[in-house]
From TrEMBL:
ATPase AAA-type core domain mapped to chain residues: 6-30
Protein name: ATPase AAA-type core domain-containing protein
Alphabetized GO MF terms: ATP binding; ATP hydrolysis activity
Pfam families recorded: AAA (PF00004)
Transmembrane regions listed in the UniProt entry: none
Organism: Pseudomonas putida
Length: 81
């Protein structure tokens, strides 16, 4: 069974791409879509979606978190962050 995709947002250079594998693993996701731009297509299932855009999250009403929240999640699960 696939999980719904999750959007992680944060400013450019904060570490989203560097820690993408650990975040995806902590969320139980198998794919990563880096540099997503609002208004462009995205996978609805099983994908960690990374973006610099901190405002336009309309498709992700309840499946989004800041990079700081994602880091806390991977730290709490013992992943390298």
């Amino acid at each position: 069974m696939s999980n719904k995709s999750v959007l992680v947002y944060g400013p450019q250079g904060c570490g989203k791409s560097t820690h993408a594998d650990a975040i995806a693993k902590a969320l139980g996701l198998n794919k990563i879509h880096d540099d997503w731009e609002p208004g462009t297509p995205f996978a609805m299932l099983d994908t960690l979606i990374l973006t610099n855009d901190c405002e336009n999250h309309a498709p992700f009403t309840r499946r989004l978190m800041s990079f700081d929240q994602a880091k806390q999640l991977i730290n709490s699960q013992g992943e390298q962050a």
